[in-house]
Design goal:
The chain has about 180 residues and is mainly beta. It has 2 domains: about 5-110, Alpha-Beta Plaits (2-Layer Sandwich); about 130-175, Roll (SH3 type barrels). About 10% of the residues lie in helices and about 40% in strands. The protein has helices at about 30-35, 105-110, and strands at about 15-25, 40-45, 45-55, 55-65, 70-75, 90, 95, 100, 130-135, 145-150, 155-160, 165-170, 175. It has a 5-stranded antiparallel sheet, with no helix packed on it.
């Protein structure tokens, strides 16, 4: 019983809230599968990400929040302590003796921002001059500024490369806004 991310629908029953699960390193997918097999409803936000290794580039679906995922629980009904004993799970994030709920609307907003593949699409509100991070492709991890919007979902990003500003055409889905700290 999982959140139907493909159609951006989620319905929590009365008494249910979203809680944060801290996973073991690189075990987010395993924890998600194991929680679902136990009847819980996990949600693991993902993103498309380019990984460089041994001079090779490959694009993978990676967790948006490494080592964390969310699970819908009704603390009065569910055996929530069994989450801590699940393969891939380090622990539920708790305060005192009980899990701390996520603020209402946060997880629902993340689910609504997912595309049909279950990947977060946070590039909807890009503006000219806005700083963005490239998340996929050969320029992955570089930060630039939006120069202009082209047709077909492409964006001209001004990247600082080779001692100057270089305009690069990149698809909107490969960009993520850089949030001010």
């Amino acid at each position: 019983m999982q959140a139907d991310v493909g159609t951006n629908r989620i319905s929590l029953t009365a008494g249910e809230r979203w809680y944060v699960v801290h996973t073991l390193p690189h075990r987010e997918l395993q924890a998600e599968r194991q929680l679902a097999a136990q009847g819980f409803r996990p949600f693991l936000p993902r993103q498309r990400k380019t990984v460089r290794h041994a001079r090779k580039l490959r694009t993978v679906n990676a967790p948006f929040f490494p080592r964390y995922l969310f699970v819908a629980l009704d603390l009065s009904r569910d055996r929530w302590r069994s989450v801590n004993g699940t393969f891939g799970v380090a622990r539920l994030v708790t305060g005192e003796d009980y899990p701390l709920p996520v603020p209402v609307g946060l997880v629902e907003g993340l689910i609504a921002a997912c595309n049909a593949d279950g990947n977060l699409q946070l590039c909807g509100a890009l503006m000219l001059g806005q700083p963005v991070r490239v998340v996929t492709g050969p320029f992955a991890a570089l930060i630039g500024a939006i120069g202009r919007f082209d047709g077909g979902g492409r964006v001209q990003v001004l990247l600082q490369l080779l001692g100057g500003t270089v305009p690069v055409q990149i698809g909107r889905e490969a960009l993520m806004p850089v949030l001010a700290a």
